[in-house]
Amino acid sequence: MKSNYLRVSLFFLAYLLISAVLFFYFDMDKKNRISVYLNQQIEKLSSEFKATKNAYEKLSNFVYDQLSNDKDFLAVLSSNQKDQIYNYLLPYYKILKRYNIHYLTIQKPDGTVVINMHKPYKKEKKTKQDLFSTEKSSGKIVMEFTKPIYIKGKLLVFFKTAISYNTLKKELQRLFRGKYEYILNNSLITKNVFNYGNYLFIQSDLHPKFYYEENSAKERASKERELIHKINLSIKEKVKQRLSQGKNFAVLTEVDGKYYIVTFLAINSSGYNIGYLISYKQDDMAAAFDMLFLQNIIFSNILIIILLAFIYYFFQTKFKFEEMAVIDKLTKLYNRHKFYEIAEQEMVRSKRHNRPFSLVLFDIDHFKQINDTYGHDVGDYVLATMAKIIKDKIRKYDYIFRWGGEEFIILAPETELKNAHKLAEKIRKLVEEHSFDKVGKVTISLGAAQFYPDSDKDIDQVIKRADTALYQSKREGRNRTTILF
């Protein structure tokens, strides 16, 4: 029973260990899958951004090509007449505005603004500073497309168009039907940002150093805005550190039982982070990864249980057959085969360490009469009961075996002959005092002998002496112990 409990415990510990290893493996697999998928979302947003930006750039280049090859426009430009330049540019500017390009500027190489089409009547001063840059950094709050215009190989002016990132974000929403936001680094919000349009900013709910354009924050329905606010609050701590690094990244979050992927595309200029274009996407792939993880855990655990159950059954069957080979079915005692195995070990130990051990051989007096009178079932009962009585009372390190028929043998390690005699007498009295059902009193005759390492070549010599002593007990009237030196 104890060994069986130990085996069950070992198999249970093996199950826990293998299950823990598989859990760790599948958890890492899930994280890797999510990481790869998030990187794919970054690539997707980057592609959307580039495609939309290129479309605006191509439109700007188209207008530039028309004007830079128009001799009449070049003549007007050379005259430096602001009203004429404005009137010539106006049809083109209207086309650009139709596609949300609201900034068109002609600027001389020395920094003097010839005309700003979005505010043509404001007097411009010569400046060496990029008109689309702030005082504090080289970062721009708009996306510029700049081309030179030459006359007879000489640089005359720069043709500049620009769109705000907020405009780009709106175009992304129109083209790709997604939820997008744009946040601007607060270091760019200085008085210069108001030079070209009315810019009003409110602090982002993601990070205190980033701001939304006010129109961006108010342009959606309140429910959608509320959802984005919830998502932002759920990822605020996750992204706090990463927002200051100026690198692309994506995070996964769960809001109201649904998974969302929030992708951050860093907008950098001259090594400076202007802000981030953000994509919000409800995504079922995260739930699919969770489901795959759960399925892997369940199926792997089922397989582990089946495998361990098979191994346990195999070993249990093996142990059972081994037990059947060495255990007497009736008395549940070791049999003669097991006796020789243990005796061999004791002989080796005795010779190596010069330690004694003894044998006590005994059988039941008049056992044939019990069988003849009460039947073999009662005889079997007497054998089984006697085996249990003696097994429960001998020392823990003593061994008792069924030797055959009504004969039993006890191997007593660390026991000299005189102590073997005491052990035999203890057993004899124990049996004599017991009352067996139907049979009543039963006695046994015993013979004891000690193993002598110097003279005994094998265990059979000791058995022979014990057997001789047993038969002497029989001849002398039974129910007694005899020892032979």
Give structural notes:
- The protein has a 6-stranded antiparallel beta sheet with strand order 6-7-5-10-9-8, with helices on both faces.
- It has 12 helices and 17 strands.
- It is α+β, with helices and mostly antiparallel strands.
The biggest sheet, with number of strands, parallel, antiparallel or mixed sense and barrel status, is: 6 strands, antiparallel
Distance between the termini: 39 Å
- Largest beta sheet: strand ordering: 6-7-5-10-9-8
Helix share bin:
40-55%
Query: Tally the helices: what do you get?
Result: 12
Mean pLDDT, to the nearest integer, reads 88
DSSP strand (E) fraction?
A: 15-25%
The tally of strands reads 17
- CATH class of the largest domain, named Alpha Beta
CATH superfamily of the largest domain: Reverse transcriptase/Diguanylate cyclase domain
**What Rg is obtained from the alpha carbons, in whole angstroms?**
49 Å
Helix-strand category: alpha+beta
Whole-number tally of structural domains: 3
CATH topology descriptor of the largest domain = Alpha-Beta Plaits
Overall, the morphology is rod-shaped
Q: Could you name the ranges where pLDDT drops below 50 across 5 or more consecutive residues?
A: 126-139
The succession of helices and strands, N to C, reads HHHEEEEHEEEHHEEEHHEHHEEHEEEHE
Q: Using the 3D structure, state the CATH architecture of the largest domain.
A: 2-Layer Sandwich
Can I get a quick summary?
The protein is an alpha+beta fold and 485 residues long. The chain contains twelve helices and 17 strands.
